Each structure stands twice: as structure tokens, then as C-alpha cells.
Amino acid sequence: AREAQLKAELERIREVNSVIEGVTASLQKAKGNMNSVHSTVNNASTLLGTWTRILSQTEHNQRLILNPQWKGATQDLEDIENEDIRRQHDAQRRAAEEQRKREEAQRRAEEEERQRAIA
């Protein structure tokens, strides 16, 4: 009787081990599936980011094309170049004005020095 009980208990333990092995195998498979889902989500995110940039650029291009005041990329480049030239002229004008002010201050200082020397 005791031996029969031990054999029955051994059989139940083997069944439990078999169930645990099945659960472990299922968890391993689930882990692999989760890695696959993770990879798929990352790829989808990358594609969505790319699609968003394409859509944004498309909307920008459409606004340009539909804008009656837009003269084209060539005009844009000319405008940028003209703006650069204007900035250079402004900088040169400011530099010349500063030089003129320095010379004027120098002239006044020399004139005051002459007036002091005369007096």
C-alpha cells in the first residue's frame, strides 16, 4: 500500500513537472513573440515618423504652389542673396558711420587742445 501511494505521488509529481515544462515552453514562446511585437512596433514608429515628415513637406509644397505671390525657388534664392547684400551694405554703412564719429571726436579733441593751447 505504501509503495502504491509513493508511485501515485511520483506520477502526480511527474504530471506537475510536465505541466511546468509546458508553461515554461509557453513563456519562452511568448518571449519570442514579444520580441517580434517590439520589433514590429519600432518599425511602425520609424515608418510613421517618415510618413509624417513626407506629409509635412507635401503640405509645405502645396502651400507654396497655391500661393500666388510665390515666384519659385529661383526667386527665393535671389531674395536670400539680395538680403545678404543688404546686410553687408548695412554693416559697411555702420562701420563708415562709426569711423566718421571717431574721426569727428578726434577732430573735436584736437580742436579743444588747440583752444587750450591758445588760451
How confident is the prediction overall: mean pLDDT? 94
Number of helices: 2
- Can you tell me the number of structural domains? 2
Q: Helices and strands, in N-to-C order?
A: HH
Structural class: mainly alpha
What is the 3D shape?
A: elongated
Strand content: under 5%
**Largest sheet data:** none
Helix content: over 70%
Radius of gyration: 42 Å
Region (Disordered): 70-119
Family: Belongs to the DASH complex DUO1 family.
Subcellular location: Chromosome, Centromere, Kinetochore; Cytoplasm, Cytoskeleton, Spindle; Nucleus
Organism: Dissoconium aciculare CBS 342.82
List keywords for this structure.
119 residues; mainly alpha; elongated
What features would you describe in this structure?
The protein is mostly helical and 119 residues long. It folds into two domains: 1-70; 74-118. It has two helices and no strands. The protein has helices at residues 2-66, 73-118. The longest helix has 65 residues, at 2-66. It starts with a helix and ends with a helix.
Question: In a nutshell, what does this entry contain?
Answer:
The protein is mainly α and 119 residues long. The protein has helices at 2-66, 73-118.
Topology summary:
Blueprint: H1 2-66, H2 73-118
